[in-house]
Structure formats: structure tokens, C-alpha cells
Specification:
By secondary structure, the chain is α/β, with parallel strands linked by helices. Helix content is 37%, strand content 18%. Helix 2 (41-55) links the parallel strand 2 and strand 3. The protein starts with a strand and ends with a helix. Bound molecules: beta-D-ribofuranose (BDR) and calcium ion. Calcium ion (CA) binds next to loops.
Length: 316
């Protein structure tokens, strides 16, 4: 069993990822921590509460920070054109979700406490801005040695970004936080656009899944329509399953090809949010990658294998 803390900004593709984690038999979802990104922290937290209630999820929710790591600048914007004004495809999520209280601790403190209570056992799957993780490391750097693994959806290594030619959204949205996470002495696996753009589910396949997966997948299907419309130009009539792809890595890493080496993130300027890996074994002059831990970047994926596992898991 994998104990997982899911750090997320629901978010349409986040919603699918949450249902995947909840339904996968080898995953023990021990907590949901929210981050801003696809919408404000108030909206993403409310959405996590909504999904917890609708899907009967037991894991507690802890609310994350609503501003960037160390308050280093303004939040760029919330992509309502991709995830809807309500962050869940404009299905009309209620403003307040009764009966789903939040954990009293802020997300970064929840992460620290949970990791310390389960040394060496917790995998953090982070699919939004990396702010909560950076805050946790700032307050308790010793947790780096206690976390089993950090799997992130983020970055664009050998491909263009999706919010600028240089940067992917989760990294661009809090670039300094991402650099802190990549360079900490823990094991990071970056599941970025290099592979997630290859993992797509057609509208038709999702509809068919909704018939097999019951009301939970029916809700997911409704949530996803707005997002599928947005992605039409890149993935005709289909859903790019960025965040679920990262979750699949936790249980089926054999489906991914990886490259090892330290990762740095450009924190400002025209390349703000660009993720750059120095592959192990390549020789350069002195650089800011020196003495940083080697991390794994996913460079290729068995997309058919990933999609088959997602469909099987969501169908329940
Ligand atoms: C990432 O950004 C968000 O829009 C998605 O939820 C995903 O985590 C893709 O760049
Ligand atoms: Ca996300």
C-alpha cells in the first residue's frame, strides 16, 4: 500500500486524479491539501470539500496558502477559461459545502505532522503550485529525510511550456517554490508535459466509463466537458489527464521512462518557471546545478498502458 498525501488545486483534471487515488486498491489516501492555481485557494478548497462529499472520501482536507512562497510576487491569474469560473467546469458547485469541516491545521503543517507520524512511508503527490511543499520544508527541513517520495505533475523539460513557451502552469505559478522542492534532499519525480500531453481520454471513452463507473464517474464526466472543449485544438474532443498521469506513476512506474539529474527552476525573467535538468554524467563547467540532488524526469510514457490503468481504476 502507498500512503499518499494529495496536494491539489481542483481543477478538472485534479478531480479525475482524486477519484483515481480514492479508487485505486494500492493507495491509502491519508490527506488532501489544497493549493491555489486553477482557481483561488478559497475556490479550490471548496471544490475539494465538494468532491469529498460527493465521492464519500474519508481523507481529511487541509487548506493551503493563498499566496506564493515567501510572498514573492503577485499571483499571475486563474485560468477560468480552462477549468471554469468555479474551477470544476461551471457545473454549479454550491458556494458552501455543509458537513465537510476542514482540518484545523494549515496544509504545510498537516504535511509536516503526517510525514513525521509515518516516517519513510508517505508519498506526496503534488499536482498544483508547489507552495505548500516549500512552506513545509521552510518550517521543518528535516521532513525531506522522512518522505518516501515526491511525485509532481509539473514542468516542461524537452518540450515547450503551456503558459509561456518556457514554462508549465504548476511551475510558473510559483517558480521559487518549485525550485525549493526540486533542490531539497528528497526524492522527486517530475511528471511533466513531456509525458502528460501524451495521455488523453476521448470524450466518448469518458462517457462510456461513466456508464460503468456509476454516479461518481458520471459527475466526473459532467465536470470535464468544459475542459474538453478548451483542449479541443490540442487533443481533439479529448481530455488531457495531466494530474492522473502523475498518480499512475505511484503504482505503475514501469510505464514511464526516466532520466536522472539535478533540476533547477528559473525563478524570474523571460524564462520564469522553466525547468532545466542537468543529466547525470554530462560534464559542464561550474553551475547552479552542482551539489544538488539528482531527481527523476519522465521523458517518455507507455500512454496506452497509463490510459488502460486509469479506465480500469475509475470503473471501480
Ligand atoms: C497543470 O496545470 C493545471 O491546469 C492542471 O490541473 C495541471 O495540474 C497542467 O499544466
Ligand atoms: Ca492541477
Amino acid at each position: 500500500m502507498h500512503k499518499v498525501i494529495f496536494d491539489t488545486d481542483p481543477g478538472v483534471d485534479d478531480a479525475m486524479a482524486l477519484l483515481f487515488l480514492e479508487r485505486h486498491p494500492q493507495i491509502d489516501l491519508v490527506g488532501i491539501t489544497t493549493t491555489f492555481g486553477n482557481a483561488s485557494i478559497e475556490t479550490t478548497t471548496r471544490n475539494a470539500q465538494f468532491l469529498k462529499r460527493e465521492w464519500g472520501i474519508a481523507a481529511p482536507i487541509a487548506k493551503g496558502d493563498g499566496q506564493k512562497y515567501l510572498a514573492t510576487g503577485e499571483i499571475h491569474h486563474y485560468p477560468a477559461h480552462i477549468h471554469g469560473d468555479d474551477g470544476l467546469g461551471n457545473i454549479g458547485v454550491p458556494d458552501v459545502i455543509d458537513g465537510v469541516p476542514l482540518d484545523p491545521r494549515p496544509a504545510h503543517r498537516f504535511i509536516i505532522d503526517t510525514v513525521k507520524a509515518n516516517p519513510g512511508e508517505v508519498t506526496i503527490v503534488a499536482v498544483g503550485r508547489m507552495t505548500n511543499l516549500a512552506n513545509a520544508l521552510h518550517e521543518a527541513p528535516e521532513i525531506a529525510g522522512l518522505v518516501k517520495e515526491v511525485v509532481i505533475m509539473g514542468g516542461a523539460f524537452d518540450v515547450p511550456g503551456n503558459v509561456t513557451p518556457a514554462a508549465e502552469a504548476n511551475i510558473h505559478g510559483d517558480a521559487l517554490a518549485a525550485d525549493v522542492v526540486m533542490t531539497a534532499p528528497w526524492k522527486v519525480v517530475a511528471v511533466g508535459l513531456d509525458v502528460t500531453l501524451k495521455t488523453v481520454m476521448s470524450r466518448k471513452a469518458l462517457a462510456a466509463l461513466a456508464e460503468r463507473g456509476g454516479p461518481a464517474v458520471e459527475l466526473l464526466d459532467r465536470i470535464s466537458q468544459f475542459y474538453i472543449d478548451f483542449y479541443d485544438a490540442q487533443a481533439p474532443d479529448s481530455m488531457v489527464v495531466h494530474d492522473t498521469c502523475a498518480c499512475v506513476y505511484v503504482v505503475a512506474r514501469e510505464l514511464f521512462t526516466t532520466r536522472s539529474g539535478p533540476i533547477r527552476v528559473s525563478a524570474e525573467g523571460v524564462a520564469e518557471g522553466k525547468t532545466i535538468q542537468k543529466p547525470d554524467g554530462m560534464i559542464f563547467g561550474r553551475s547552479v546545478w552542482d551539489d544538488k540532488p539528482s531527481q527523476l524526469v519522465c521523458t517518455d510514457v507507455d500512454a496506452a498502458g497509463v490510459m488502460a490503468l486509469i479506465e480500469k481504476t475509475l470503473a471501480g
